[in-house]
Design brief:
The chain is built from eleven helices and 21 strands. The chain is an alpha+beta fold. Strand 5 and strand 6 form a beta hairpin. Strands 11, 12, 13, 14, 16, 17 and 20 form a seven-stranded antiparallel beta sheet that branches. Strands 1, 2, 4, 5, 6 and 9 form a six-stranded antiparallel beta sheet that branches. It is about 25% helix and about 20% strand. The termini are far apart.
């Protein structure tokens, strides 16, 4: 069927010689098209001058305002930079692996739950086997075929490079039957074969991070069969059964550091330089005009090469000092988002879809890059105990769920332990989560007690034991997959985590 033309400004609508500027910048081919969208946005907000006129020079704001703008710009850019560094870390391989690494446009299917050595993303889960693919549809669409899941719950959320979940095939949304879709870039127009549904990506690149319900190692092989049956190919190769070419490996991208740590280790000028480069192929959303206006006042123009040395002294100083307050705000946004009750913080709004709430988007990226929309999964986070004290691995805790307090889900629920790095920590039984698919022991009245501590609570209670790290602070996440309405509207709240008394 013939596809409608994408709704973007064409070159003839731009002010001045936008195409020439794109070519002068070395942005040939599909990158030139992406650059034109950035130039189009720039024209609309006065960043590109009419033909024959000198660009208008913005007035440098006072020093305190310049610092504020630079900090806001860092917060705004953070998810895109984090996504790019995560993409580099997990696509810098020649062949797909059974961890989270695979070349662009190829799935990496996790063969087993992550362990304490896993650092690719923060707050991983031990409930599902991941199917991860970073896509590049700047040249042509990518066709994805999903088999019948046989009744097994799964979800395949697709994120653009700004961490927006723009579609999420899976049990809740499209059901468990087979389906085939063509993921296309923002500039593409053409013909898609009948029987294939098209999905438009807002950015040329992005991330699919699928999750398939897996109730422990005994189910690994059944899940592997479903994973192996997911097929992908560029539209031009669809149906030809071609073997994917090996992916390029860039030695400069190799790093053992988690991507979030890599971002924090970057100096602000390098951060903004990378941001300005990545945005060329990944156009901003339509709500960016106010922040672009402000960034321009200190010399930051997304899509144009960033050179701190060319900034005015006041702007250069503001940029160099932006990281610390911005990172503090991002972390505070995570810790302060949603509603706080019983020591848990639950965000029931704007996860996966953020609009112009840039701080919240950055906070979610920092603490859970690739997070699902709340309708697919809800993530209450336990930060303190019932007395308001941070969790300490040297103490013992009990979580008591009355029968009516057990997490309400249509899918399944779990509770996961994280150390101070937001990662799994070694423990005696290599068990990082506990939930309704485990053989839990319920009390006679239907209530449930979970025991959180580093040492065994005793053989009679080990079925309900979630091990804490050997030392140091920790936090926990409940995960409610396909939550029921009472979880989404806030009428259900997780119970407090109480410090145990006695020896």
């Amino acid at each position: 069927m013939t596809r409608p033309m994408p709704v973007y400004r064409k070159a003839s609508m731009l002010r001045g010689n936008g195409l020439g500027r794109a070519k002068q910048a070395g942005l040939e081919g599909h990158h030139a098209g992406a650059a034109l969208r950035v130039i189009a946005a720039a024209s609309a907000i006065g960043l590109a001058a009419p033909s024959g006129a000198a660009p208008a020079q913005p007035t440098m704001p006072p020093a305190d305002e310049a610092r504020e703008i630079a900090t806001d710009a860092y917060v705004y850019a953070y998810p895109l930079v984090l996504m790019e560094l995560t993409r580099r870390k997990t696509t810098n391989v020649a062949q797909a692996t059974t961890t989270m690494a695979a070349p662009l446009n190829q799935f990496a299917h996790l063969a087993a739950f992550p362990n304490a050595k896993f650092t690719d993303v923060v707050r991983p889960n031990a409930d599902t086997l991941y199917s991860s693919m970073w896509f590049d549809v700047t040249k042509e669409p990518l066709v994805i075929s999903i088999p019948d899941s046989g009744g097994r719950d799964y979800l395949l959320p697709i994120l653009d490079m700004w961490t927006e979940v723009f579609t999420s095939p899976g049990s809740r949304t499209t059901g468990n039957g087979p389906q085939t879709l063509a993921l296309e870039g923002p500039d593409w127009s053409g013909t898609i074969p009948e029987g294939i549904e098209f999905v438009r990506s807002p950015t040329g690149m992005g991330w699919i991070i699928g999750r398939t319900n897996t109730a422990g190692p005994a189910e690994y092989e059944a899940v592997h069969r479903f994973q192996r049956a997911i097929r992908t190919a560029p539209l031009s190769a669809w149906g030809k059964d071609e073997v994917p070419a090996p992916g390029p490996v860039n030695p400069e991208w190799k790093s053992d550091r988690p991507p979030a740590d890599q971002v924090e280790e970057m100096e602000a000028p390098a951060f903004f330089a990378l941001f300005s480069e990545v945005v060329k192929a990944n156009p901003p959303h339509d709500v960016v005009y106010p922040i672009f206006d402000r960034m321009r006042r200190i010399g930051i123009v997304p899509g144009e090469a960033f050179d701190a040395a060319r900034l005015a002294p006041e702007a250069r100083q503001a940029v160099s000092e932006a990281k610390a307050p911005a990172v503090q705000r991002i972390k505070a946004s995570f810790h302060g988002s949603g509603q706080f009750a019983n020591g848990w913080r639950t965000n029931c709004t704007a996860v996966g879809t953020y609009g112009a709430d840039y701080a919240h988007r950055a906070g979610v990226a920092y603490a859970g890059l690739g997070a699902n929309t709340i309708e697919d999964a809800l993530y209450p986070t336990a930060l303190v105990d019932a007395d308001g004290r941070p969790f300490d691995s040297g103490r013992r805790y009990v979580i008591h769920f009355d029968k009516s307090e057990v997490p309400p889900v249509r899918g399944f629920w779990s509770q996961t332990m994280y150390d101070e790095r937001q990662l799994f920590a070694d423990n005696p039984i290599s068990h990082y989560a506990i939930g309704d698919r485990d053989k839990l022991t319920y009390n006679p009245d239907g209530s449930l007690d979970l025991y959180v501590q580093r040492d065994s609570p005793g053989t009679d209670k080990e079925a309900n034991w979630l091990p804490a790290p050997a030392s140091g602070p920790f936090t926990m996440n409940l995960r409610l997959y396909w939550p029921k309405p009472q979880a989404l509207d806030g009428s259900w709240k997780p119970p407090a985590v109480r410090a145990a008394s006695g020896p």
